[in-house]
Amino acid sequence: MSVIRAGLQRITNIIRNGSGGILSRFITNSALIENKTVPQTPKEVISACNKLIEENASRNFAIVHLLGKQWRVTDGDLLVVEGYWPPNIGDKITLDKVLLAATKDFSLIGRPLVQPGLVTVTATVISKGLSHTRTHFKKKRRKQYMRINFQRAEQTMLRINSVNIASKINEPSKNVF
Amino acid sequence: MVFLSVVNFTRSRGPDEFWRKRRIFRLAAHYIGRSRNCYSIAVRNVHRALAYATKARKLKKQDMIDLWNTRITAACEQHNITYYTLKEGLDRANIMLDRKSLSDLASWEPRTFECLAAVAKQKVEYDGFNDGTDKNRPTGTNLKLKDVMLEAWLKENKKF
Amino acid sequence: MSNSNLFLKSGFIRAPLQNGVGRFVPQLQRIVLKFCKSNGSSRGLRDFIEQDLVDFAKQNPSVVVYLKPRRHRGPVIVAEYLNGDRVWMGMHNKTHSEITKWIEVLRTQQGDIASLRLRKYQYTDYPSVQGPWTPFTFKDPELNTAKLPDPKYGANNRLPMTATEKLRLMFEKQKLNDVNTAE
C-alpha cells in the first residue's frame, strides 16, 4: 500500500462551503506505477479523502486567520502576533478561522473558511511582552522641524500544538461551540 | 605645573552633555571614520538613518507585496494561468487567501497551489469569463471539434 | 557587517527548551524589588509591596520574590529569566498602578524581548509539508530518459487560436444552428 502511495502522488481537492457550493476537483498523477483507477466522481473523491484522513500518514498544515493576518501553521510552530490580544500566558487556545488545511496528499480549501468542526488548530500562549522600541523620527531639513516618537507594540508568542483534520468530510460535525 | 595662559574658547555646555551625546554615539557605533567619533558629523548621519528607517517601514510592506506578486505570477505561469485570472477565479469562488499565503503555498506547497490554480481556472470557465490571456486554449493541431461543439451546446442549454 | 556594534541586535524567534510543546513553563525565575523605606520616589513600589505583592507571590509559585530595602537609593526592579536574561527596570516616581502593569509585563515575558529586533514573526522546523517547489516539480519525469530534441517536448502547443480555427468553429456552430432550426 505504501509503495502504491509513494508512486501515486494524487491530489484531490474539495471545496467545502457551509451553504453547499460547487464541488469541483482536480487530480494530478505523476509517475503512476500501477494502473490504478483514479477516482472521478465527487463521491469517490470524498471517500478517498476520508480514508486518507483516517490513515493520517503525514504532517498537516493549515492557513489560519489571526489578528487580521494569515499564517501558515503546522505542529510545533512558533508565532508572534502584534497588537492587543487578551489571552494570557499558559492559556490553551483553538484557532478557529481556518482558510485552508492540507496534507501531503490532499487539501481542503475553505470558501472562505472550512467547516467549523473539520479542522482543529490548538495553540498555547507562551509569552506576552513589549517589542523593541521603534523610533518614529521625522525631519525636514533646513526648516527646524524635527519630531521623535517612540512606540512599543504588545507582542504575544504562540506555540502551535497541533493541526488536526478531525472529522470526515461531508459528515455533519458535532456541536463545536 | 604653572599655566601661563588661560584656555579660551572652551566652555562646558552643561553637565549632561556627555550623556546627551552618548545617545547619538551609541546609534553611530558601526559607522565609518569621523561619523563614529565626532558629534556634529555623527548627529547628521544618525538623523538621516532614523528618517530612512521610519520611511522604510512603509516601503518594506510595499516591497513584500511586490515580491509576493512576482512569486505568485511565476507559479501561475507554470500552470498556464495568469495572475489576474487566478485572483479573479479565487475571488469569485469566495476563497480569501491573501498574497502572503498564496506565495507561501506557491514556494513551499506546490501541489496545493496547483489545486488553487485549477479551481480558479474552472470557476472562471464556469462563469464564462475569458480574459483572452490563456495561451493554452485549444489550437488547431489538437482541436477536438466534438468536444468544442459539445461545450457550446451545453452552454446554450445551460446544462451546468 | 557585524552584529556586535549595532545598537539593536536582530534575530529570529526562539522559545527555550521547546516551551509549550509539552508542558508550559513560566519563564520568570526571580524578581528582586529594591526600594527605599522612606524616600518619595519609592512610594508606588512600597504601596505595591504592601498591597499586591503577597497575591502576586501566591499566584506565581514558580517565581522567587526578593525584597531589598536600600536606603537613599532609587527604586528598581530586576527580573531574571530562565534563559539567563536580566532585565533592570527603574521604578523611580512610578505609581502603584503603573508598577502593577510593568510587573505583569515582566512576568509574562520570556526574557528580554525588547533587546532583539525580530526578523520574522514566524518560526517553523518544517517549512514544507508537500516538498518545496523545485524546477522539476511539474516536469514530466519521462524527460529524464527522453532524447532531446524530441517532437513531443519541443511542440509549440501554447499558441492562441488561429483565425482558421475560429472560422471552423463558427462554421460548425452554424451547421448546428441550421440543424436545430430545421428540426
Automatic annotation (TrEMBL), chain A:
Signal peptide range = none
Q: Does the keyword Ribosomal protein apply?
A: yes
Entry's Gene Ontology molecular function annotations = RNA binding; structural constituent of ribosome
Q: Which Pfam families match?
A: Ribosomal_L21p (PF00829)
Which spans of this chain does the record mark as coiled coil?
A: none
Sorted keywords for this record are:
Ribonucleoprotein, Ribosomal protein
Please tell me one Gene Ontology term that the record gives under cellular component.
Answer: mitochondrial large ribosomal subunit
Which SUPFAM superfamilies does the protein's record reference? L21p-like
Q: Does the keyword Ribosomal protein apply?
A: yes
Under the heading InterPro entries, the entry gives: bL21-like, bL21-like_sf, Ribosomal_bL21
For this entry, list what GO says about its biological process: translation
User: What family classification does the UniProt entry report for this protein?
Assistant: Belongs to the bacterial ribosomal protein bL21 family.
NCBIfam families in the record: L21
User: What name appears for this protein in its UniProt entry?
Assistant: Large ribosomal subunit protein bL21m
Naturally occurring in which organism (per UniProt): Diatraea saccharalis
TrEMBL record, chain B:
GO CC entries = ribonucleoprotein complex; ribosome
Gene3D superfamilies recorded: 6.10.160.10, Ribosomal protein L20
Q: Give the residue range of the signal peptide.
A: none
- A Gene Ontology molecular-function term? rRNA binding
The reply on keyword Protein biosynthesis is: no
Which InterPro entries does this one have?
Ribosomal_bL20, Ribosomal_protein_bL20_C
Q: Name one Pfam family in it.
A: Ribosomal_L20
**Which terms does the UniProt entry file under GO BP?**
translation
Which keywords label this protein? Ribonucleoprotein, Ribosomal protein
Its family remark reads:
Belongs to the bacterial ribosomal protein bL20 family.
Q: What is this protein called?
A: Large ribosomal subunit protein bL20m
Native organism is Diatraea saccharalis
Q: What is the lineage of its organism?
A: Eukaryota, Metazoa, Ecdysozoa, Arthropoda, Hexapoda
Automatic annotation (TrEMBL), chain C:
Question: Which BP terms from GO are recorded?
Answer: mitochondrial translation
Q: Where found? A: Mitochondrion
The keyword Hydrolase appears for this protein: no
Query: Mainly resides where?
Result: mitochondrion
Top-rank taxon:
Eukaryota
Q: Which residues form the Ribosomal protein/NADH dehydrogenase domain?
A: 37-110
| An annotated GO cellular component | mitochondrial large ribosomal subunit
- InterPro entries assigned: Ribosomal_mL43, Ribosomal_mL43/mS25/NADH_DH, Thioredoxin-like_sf
User: What GO molecular-function term can you cite, just one?
Assistant: structural constituent of ribosome
Question: Matching Gene3D superfamilies, A to Z?
Answer: Glutaredoxin
> Which keywords are on file for this protein?
Mitochondrion, Ribonucleoprotein, Ribosomal protein
What family, per the record? Answer: Belongs to the mitochondrion-specific ribosomal protein mL43 family.
Q: What name is this protein filed under? A: Large ribosomal subunit protein mL43
